Every structure is written in C-alpha cells, then in structure tokens.
Amino acid sequence: MDTVKKTFLSAIVLLSLLMPFADLMAQGDSDIKNRWRSEVEQVLSAFDTHYVYPETALEMRSIIQQKSALGEYQSIDSLATLLAELQADLREVSNDGHISLHQKADIAEPLNHVIPITESQEKILTSLESLENSVSTVGYIRLDKFHPSGLQKERFITAMNDISSADSMIIDLRENGGGDPDFTAFVSSYFLAENYHLWSIIDRDSEVVFDAKTASPRPLEIKPFAGKLCILTSFKTYSAAEAFAYTLKHSARAVIIGEATGGGAHLVDMISVNDQLAVRMPLARAYSPITKANWEGTGVIPDIKVNAAQALSRAKEYLAE
Predict the structure, then answer these.
(1) What is the DSSP string of 116-137?
(2) Which domains does the chain have, with CATH numbers?
(3) How confident is the model at residue 152 (pLDDT cuts 50, 70, 90)?
(4) Cα–Cα distance measured from residue 136 to residue 122, given in angstroms and rounded to the nearest whole number
(5) Based on CB atoms within 10 Å of each CB, which residue in 24, 94, 106, 143 is the most buried?
(6) Residue 146 three-state SS
(7) Start-to-end Cα distance in the chain
(8) Is the pLDDT reported for residue 121 higher than 90?
C-alpha cells in the first residue's frame, strides 16, 4: 500500500513539474501558428485599398489567405524571406510583374516611383546625315529618359532645332525606361496637332483622373516636324517611353521599328504598409482613346520587327525606300 501511495505521489509531483513546460510548448505552437499573420494581413489590406484592379486584389486576398491558413508561411525564419515568397505568390496570382515588397530600411527615401536620372540619361544625342542613294536627309535623336525637368525640355528643344532641316527623323528609345508623362506630352507636341488627346489615366474606380494632351496653343519654341518619323524600340523601352511610341503608332504618325517593348502601362507608386514594410504596386492605368486599350503586358508591337541592334540600320533603309 505504501508503495502504491508513493508511486501516486511521485506521479503528481512529476506532472506538476511538467505542466510549465507543457504551457511553454503550447505557447510556442501558438507563436509558430500565428507567425507572420499580421504582416501578411497588412500587405493584403494595402492591396485592398490601392491596387489598380479591385477584383484582382480580392483574388489575391483569397488565395494568400488560403496559403496562410495552411501554414505555408509559418516555417519562414526571416522577414526578407517572407517578403520574397509573398511577392512571388502575389505576382503569380495577379500576373503582375510590377508588384514588389520591400523593407523600408532597404529603400532610399523618399518612397515614390521616381527613378533618379543618371548623367548618361541626361544627354540627348543628335546627328544629321544623308540617306544612302538619296538626296534626302535624316535627323537622329537618342533619348534615354523622359525626365521631368525644365532643363531636359530645353535640351530637347535644342536637339530638335539642330536637326530641323531633316526630311525625315529617327527617335531612338531603345534604352529609354520611361519617366514623366508631362515630358512625353511635350515631345508629342512636335509631331501631333495642338490639344491632341494622347491618352487618359484611369484609377481603380474606373474614373478618369488625367487626360494627357499635346500643347495648346503650341509654344513658339516648339517647331512642329511634319516629315516621316521612325521610332526605335527594344524590350527595355518602358512606361512613358511606351506611351509615346504607342500613341504615335496608333495615330498613324510614326513607324515603330525594333522589338516589342516591356509592357508597362500602369502608374506605379510605393505604398507604406507599416513601420517596416512598403509595397510597390500599380495604382492606375493608361487608356488610349484610339484603341480603347493600352500596352500593359503586351508592349508596343513594332510595325517592322527586327533585333534591337539592327533597328537603326533598318530604319534608314525604310526611310530611303
């Protein structure tokens, strides 16, 4: 009897000793189960509020929440890894390569979509030459950035004046990653009529928030060019540079030569999620009054498709025909 009593008492003592450890284990399981849940929810909330297509934001929320409930993010041991995996999942659901997730500590302030212009992008290269086997001349302008500065506009005015005697013109956008829509409209004013409706910007509620138009009246310093125009493109041509090429193509004002462009017709900005996180996402989209669409995903399709490296020589051949 004493032996049974002692065994029973020993079991009680052992159980009392193990209970705190059981509580800790239960707490640990709870922590793992809830790991990253707050961060995931805050990211999804940012898409709910800002993403250009609300229906796609709902689809992203549904699928990401399912993955979270199944514990697919629980084993991740760092915020950087979480953002990489979550970004990949969001892009897969939306088929949107614009989406990116960032730790604020890794982002240079301010948090916006404006990319600093480099010294090489500031330069606007020009030349004027005779076409082979022709008495005609062609002006060439290489423009690597549509930068929103008065100085860049002055440079473009000077460049156009330098080749104003040309019979035809080539604008090289093969290295142009985009820039400012206002500058795009300014350049377009050389080749299209005054007050020409270039494109609109439509927000997530399908409301027009901005109509891009050529200058009206056209400033005296802008001397319109009426000759033949070729625009050179590559897969690097993007955003505002695509807007220029797309609009002049569908206005029947220019021939596009080279490769299909990158396909970025959305306006993208950085949205703060919390003290640590930010999300870059599309907030609005471009809309052409001519095509009733835009170049998102497909890019601007050239009229004459050639490798980007051959685009300049092919343009000269075309203009000499």
Answers:
(1) PPPHHHH-EEEEEEEPTTSS-E
(2) 23-96 (no CATH), 119-320 (3.90.226.10)
(3) confident
(4) 29
(5) 143
(6) strand
(7) 114
(8) no
